[in-house]
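Predict the 3D structure for this chain.
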Amino acid sequence: MNDTKHAPTLGSLFDGIGGFPLAAVQNGIIPLWASEIEAFPMAVTGRRFPDMLQVGDITKLNGAKLPPVDIVCGGSPCQDLSVAGARAGLSGERSGLFMEQIRITKELRDADLLRGRTGQFVRPRLFCWENVPGAFSSGKPQGEDFRIVLEETLGICFPGIHVPGPIFGRFKSSGWIRVGDTLSLGWRVLDAQYWGVPQRRRRIFLVADFAGLSAPKILFKPERLPGYPAQSR
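Done. Predicted structure below.
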């Protein structure tokens, strides 16, 4: 049954100490489950979010067996994409775990299709990925890893889709893609110093809407941002 009369729900991958669940509860979203393997972060989130299910190692999860959620979020390990690292990219052991986020999202959606849900009601509808700006230059040719991130994310709904590389040799710090009227994807670099945190911490936030055109609205319309934060560069 296609029923949208419920509070949105969230699944958090590479959860850490629960950054995405914290943002969720502050915005009326229910964090249902989280994947993490480190003991201390799990102890923190277990205390702060006692009703959130801890599902463990991402490499051992089957999305079809997880509780369905409206939103899947994840900040896959950044070490292999960072300009400060060895730059192994998505082929690296740690940053390559991004592909697990893609796999689980596909499995979640395939399971929902088997339940009889269709169109905009297939879960998860929204996908969020967070990582370092070094992803824009990682890979050969330069930016190949971010191109793969875009292609794999769009491929969740459109298998075999091709995303070309950047026209001028490097991806810009913000942009968006539209596939007809049924899918939108956007990305934007945000800096923590403009969000009430006393440090400079620039990160890419990528959002995909698998059933509509809300991705650029989420990322680029100021009225969608809680508290109307100071405008960044």
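Residues 98-114 form the longest helix (17 residues).
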